[in-house]
Amino acid sequence: MVQHTPIEVDREKGNFSYKTHYEYDAGVGLNEGVINYIADVKGEDDWIRQFRLKALDVFNRRAMPTHWATKDLENIDFAKIRYYLSKGQIPKRTWEEVPDEIKQTFERLGIPEQERKFLAGVEAQFDSEAAYSNIKADLEKQGVIFLGPNEGLKEHPDVFRKWFGKIIPTNDNKFSALNSAVFSGGSFIYVPPGVKVAQPLQAYFRINAESFGQFERTLIIADEGSEVTYMEGCTAPQFETSTIHSAVVELVAMKSAKIQYITVQNWSNNVFNLVTKRGLAHEESEIRWIDCNIGSRLTMKYPAVVLNGRKARGEVLSIALANDGQHQDTGAKMIHNADETSSNIISKSISIGNGRSSYRGLVHIPDHLRGCKNNTECDALLINTNSRTDTFPAITVRGNGNSVQHEASVSKLSAEQIFYMMQRGLSEGEAMSLSVNGFVNDLMKHFPMEYSVELKRLIDLEMEGSVG
Amino acid sequence: MANQLEIRNLNVTIGDKPILKDFSLSIPKGEVHALMGPNGTGKSTLAKVIAGHEDYTVQSGEVLVDGVNIIGMEPDEIARSGVFLAFQYPLEIPGVSIANFVRAALQARMEEGETFNAPAYYRSLYEKMDLLQIDRKFTARSVNEGFSGGEKKRCEILQMAMLDPKYCIMDETDSGLDIDALKIVANGVNLMRSPDRAFLVITHYQRLLDYIIPDKVHVMWDGRIVQSGNKDLALELESKGYNWVKEELATA
Predict the structure, then answer these.
(1) pLDDT at res. A89
(2) A11-20, A204-213, B99-108: lowest mean pLDDT where?
(3) Which residue in B92, B94, B109 is closest to A425 by CB distance?
(4) A-B Cβ pairs (cutoff 8 Å, strict)
């Protein structure tokens, strides 16, 4: 009999990094000195410094959540990590020094020409003036504030301080504390009442080298009746990422506002991606998380919506792809806290080779509420026999006036299906990527066009690398 | 030899069990050959071995496509070399529409730098769907998902017509078809008959051969061809049953 050859993964893919000289470097390890260094470099007000120091204390006291999560977390050596690096504004590397395979990856992913140099770290500043000056002028005219966390807190404390660290308190979990201690980079956005921002906002509209930091902090406030879409990350492999990425993202949707937050991340195989995301939805508002996680050694991410006002709506649409040696531990939380609130969770995971996907869901509807609804669907696709998937739904619904629907499915891409597609002339990689695209197809229809195109290309690339 | 599908002394096992025993057959372009025989004689094994299925072990022998031995090639290479297998049990591909599937199959055949002509593709797809009396709504439906038996078989013939293979192997295409669907499928196949193409029609019953008239009929028994003839052999087989072959063999 012919042996089934196990799917092999190119472990080098995405692990691109090369030497760069930094102007600011807080050194390795985490202590008060590091926190003070960051606060000094950034010239922060004393209250932020105190916020950071208090967070460090919380971080040090909290245990790792290994009692419910994977033991792999114990392998993070916090003493060996650099918590703050900044290049300043002078590029230290030329386009010629960028390895050819990175250039090819950009090409194949269809990253616009003008963004490639920035993503490759050749330019500390992405020349967004040329590409996006119209959008920026437009935003300013509408009164939209779009800054980094430091500028946001410094220039508009009246707007941001009220909500900063309120949706996700420092002591929410060990990693929210870590982020609170060392955050840098990210976006602070305020959209005034009634303003509907037409184009999705992206970190690269803002010009600074920290847009894709390790410890980003994002706070988006959509005032009454406003609408905004934010896109985070990009499908290009993330270069120079350290082994830990721990972001905190807080969203506030005031009455009748709508926030859509889209993430597509493609991490290299050595990264621990531990992210806390939560939105607070007031009356008749809507918060939607679209979350696509590809790569990383371990991703733990459970976007949440706290439905605090009558008729508020929350949604999480997520796709996770765990290739060999990767673990995607993702899910969603919906906390119903008012009558007639509704929530929808659709989660799709793909596990390949030894890849592992876990879905964790929490839906909470207390006794006293009426007319609340939740719909949860989680589908898992397994490719090749070693992969593993788990579903841990926790749905607590009390009272009679509420309704919940839960569906879960696990399917397996069989050798016969692959053979059938290959008999039509598709290579094994093409057959797998077509199946994966088919599996996520109905969910991708909800995504903005350009993101679904990029995501499709990314899946193609990922599956190509999966074939031995 | 070029211009034919040639199977030479093929010995195939599954595990330790021999299935094909010194099987030989040549099908020149322009001809339709029918391969008949009772269940379990190795007809479907032959089809899958030609297509490169990895569950079977070829112990010896060759399968030559226009003179090139395809044994050991990957299934997709074999497909792109011009061999099409219409499956007895077509597989479902959830979420992938027929239009996208056929398109991906055609794109896999394109040269580097060649661009796909979408309008021409859809014209050709719709034309062939009309011919096979497949509702155009089907283009957007997932491949074989929720299809009836007859719909699946028509979808196989649609793919065959779109991919324009040199050698078509049809594995029990008539099973699960009612007489109307059978006529539609046969009509589709007959329109594809050409001096540049050969067919191997694997079937249990003579019925399909009333509509797809074969140039040659072969009877398979216990892993090899035991009798060959013209289309009348199929009729004889129909009236006398497979036991007749068995008896002939016993007396031989």
Answers:
(1) 43
(2) A11-20
(3) B109
(4) 89
Residues 6 or more apart in contact with residue B237 via CB below 8 angstroms: B36, B206, B217, B219, B244, B245
Q: Which residues of B touch A421 (CB under 8 A)?
A: 93, 101
pLDDT of A13 higher than 50? no
Residues on chain B touching A464 (C-beta within 8 angstroms): none
> Do β-strands A313-322 and A286-295 pair in parallel, antiparallel, or remain unpaired?
parallel
Per the CB < 8 Å rule, is A422 touching B76? Answer: yes
Please list every residue in chain B whose beta carbon sits closer than 8 Å to the beta carbon of residue A2.
Answer: 54-57
Average pLDDT of chain A is: 83
Check if the interface score ipTM surpasses 0.90: yes
DSSP state letters, A136-186: HHHHHHHT-EEE-HHHHHHH-HHHHTTTTTTSS-GGGSHHHHHHHHH----
User: Nearest Cα to A119, choosing from A135, A106, A107?
Assistant: A106
String of DSSP letters for A33-49: HHHHHHHHHHT--HHHH
Six token digits for residue B45: 């094994």
Using CB atoms and an 8 Å cut-off, which of residues 399-438 of chain A contact chain B? 411, 414-417, 419-428, 430-431, 434-435, 437-438
Task: Give B-chain residues touching A439 at CB under 8 angstroms.
Answer: 94-95
Within 8 A of A108 by CB-CB distance, chain B residues are none
Tell me the CATH number at B219. Answer: 3.40.50.300
Give yes or no for residue A44 having a pLDDT over 50: yes
Contact assignment for B104 to A430 by CB distance below 8 Å:
yes
| CA–CA distance, B139 with B84 (Å, rounded to integer) | 20
More confident residue, A116 or A235: A116
The per-residue pLDDT for A99 is 67
Confidence class of residue A442 from pLDDT cuts 50, 70 and 90?
Answer: confident
> How far apart are alpha carbons B101 and A408 in whole angstroms?
26
Residue A424 and residue B54: Cβ atoms within 8 Å? no
The C-alpha atoms of residue A32 and residue A404 are separated, in whole angstroms, by 47
> Which of A416, A419, A463 to mutate to probe the B interface, most B CBs <10 Å?
A419
Q: What is the pLDDT of residue A299?
A: 94
Q: How many structural domains does chain B have?
A: 1
Identify the domain containing residue B192 by its residue range: 4-90+166-251
**Distance of alpha carbon B104 from the chain centroid:** 20
Kindly state the DSSP code that residue B247 receives in the 8-state scheme.
H
Beta-carbon separation of A438 and B95 below 8 A: yes
Let me know if residue B83 belongs to a domain.
Answer: yes
**B115-127 confidence digits (pLDDT tens):** 999 999 999 999 9
Q: What is the DSSP letter of B110?
A: S
- For residue B200, what pLDDT is reported? 97
Query: Cα–Cα distance between A377 and A315 in angstroms, integer?
Result: 12
Tokens of A195: 């303003």
Nearest CA-CA partner of A299 in A238, A231, A244, A237: A244
Q: Write down the pLDDT at residue A96.
A: 73
The answer as to whether B236 is a domain residue is: yes
Residue type for B91, please?
L
Residue B54: the pLDDT is 92
Amino acid, res. A19 = K
In a domain, B103, yes or no: no
Q: Answer yes or no: is B136 within a domain.
A: no
